[in-house]
Amino acid sequence: MLPSHSQLLFFLSAAALLIVIPGPAVFYIVGRSIGQGRAAGLVSVLGIHVGTLIHVAAAAIGLSALLMSSAFAFSAVKYSGAAYLVYLGVQKLRRRESFEISPAEPQTRLRRVFADGIIVNVLNPKTALFFFAFLPQFVNPARGHVPVQIFLLGMVMITIGLASDTVWSLSAGTVAQVFRRNARWMRTERYVSGGILISLGVATALAGSGTRK
Predict the structure, then answer these.
(1) E-strand spans in the chain?
(2) Sign of CA dihedral 25, 90, 18, 103
């Protein structure tokens, strides 16, 4: 059900690059880790990825339904998704996000931290759009079982994300303080992240054009 070895390697590389780019989920995890300690940070990681699992399921259902209704529409989604990645890259170049976190925020029960993590990701439209933009580039309808393909690719991304976000959580106290004080790093991160998103948008469009045969 998974792509060929070369396509899978490309998917893993692209997914890893995209996941390590700081976004709302990372900022939430880092904030909880600094405000309430590593336990809260790790619980927030679990909550974030339960929310991600919901997006994966929605993408599997929605994209498979789209394919059954129209192969042309599915192809349009793939190329629109690649264009969306380029758009995200341009937006990243234009805007600067930062680790504006108060270490003195009130303590919150871990159950609430977990639930908030789910809500943060489920209600994040960028996460939903991201899965509809990225995963279709590596789905080949000719292999059949489109929902299973999307679900497996989504689970691979969740696994990578869990590893990456766990590192953010465990090292948040040191990492966030360094980033927050280092204006040059923040500028560099913006350009690097934006360039990665734009490059991956172009690369996935080109790669996707050869996976439908």
Answers:
(1) none
(2) negative
